[in-house]
Amino acid sequence: MEKIRHFNIPVFMPEMACPQSCIYCNQSVVTSVSSIPDSNHVQTIVEAHLKTIPRKTGTIIEIAFFGGNFTGISEDMQKAYLEVASRYKKNNMVDGIRISTRPDFIDAGSLDLLLKYGVTSIELGVQSMDDEVLKRSGRGYVTATVEKAAQLIRSYGFELGMQMMPGLPGDSEDASVATAHAIVRCGASTTRIYPLLVIKDTPLENMYKKGLYKPLTISQAVETTKKLLIIFLKAGVRVLKMGLHPAPDLINQKRLVAGPFHPCFAELVLTSYWADLFSKLTSEPNKQISMTVNPSDINHAIGYKAANKKELLKRFKKVTFKTDDALKKYHYHVDYSF
Ligand code: SF4
Questions:
Q1: pLDDT, tens digit (0-9, with 9 covering 90-100), for 50-87
Q2: Residue of the CA atom closest to atom 7 of ligand 1
Q3: Model-level pTM greater than 0.90?
Q4: Phi and psi at residue 117, to the nearest 5°
Q5: In angstroms, rounded to a whole number, what is the distance separating the alpha carbons of residues 199 and 221?
Q6: Does the pLDDT at position 31 exceed 60?
Q7: In terms of C-beta density within 10 A (0-12 exposed, 13-18 middle, 19 or more buried), how is residue 131 classed?
Q8: SS3 of 129, please?
Q9: How far, in Å, is the centroid of ligand 1 from the Cα of 244?
Q10: Where would I find the beta strands (DSSP E) of 165-214?
Q11: Residue 166 has what DSSP assignment?
């Protein structure tokens, strides 16, 4: 079976005139309008990326308008951006156009426009499917809003993505698990899991400093995200990202106050996932084992900083890893020898 490779051409949209007050958001940063890309700049970004992406069978290239509430910007601006993107799609130079937005910025009018310009995927920043968590986070909508938006998006035939944010105020592991199940029920094809971080100059920072909010630890965030990953894997929902990767200036300028940030967060989750699989093997210190996995799993099976291999070496005489394309992702085969 041929392997499909996805390439996104990211065009970062700043949030503009956002009417909400999500408690984890630094409005002064996100409402800055100084860096709105104009449509010419979008073309420059796309051209630059296309030069680096091999256009061959088995590659899917998408232009992705990320980081903003796309359907919240003026219709004229949406059209200007989409004119550029749709030209590349019509000329078969890209396969799809993705946008991200808030669930309460979805209606038939906005979807008609996106459909007209050939948008293929819509990602909703859902964050939680618990009304109390949404309320305490200042998101400004309820779960019924999300369900309605998801249903409408799917009725138009768009691919639906839904992002979630474990660790919001009032959230718990059970509530995050329930959110993942709700995302599956809504018919999402993709998801992104961003455990909540405390950013400077936000209401959440004040809550944190007053002891009114306690962020997840890294190990709690890894454990919860692993449970969510398993739910999504079983349901066939593609997990596109785990863990937020703040822009370098966020870290350099010390905007990150607290929370489960790790530059290799996804690796930690996948290492833990594989550790659970290997924990089911019966220890046999006199034997050596050879583990075979899909090539895309090899690093995670061995583990972050070889954690899983080191653990297995405590239980077996010798441990080796090899790859086989024929093995399904997240599966392994083990051979024992003396
Ligand atoms: S996170 Fe919330 S407050 Fe911040 S820009 Fe997005 S919707 Fe607006």
A1: 999 877 777 899 999 987 789 988 899 899 999 999 99
A2: 20
A3: yes
A4: -95, 10
A5: 17
A6: no
A7: middle
A8: coil
A9: 15
A10: 190-193, 198-199
A11: T
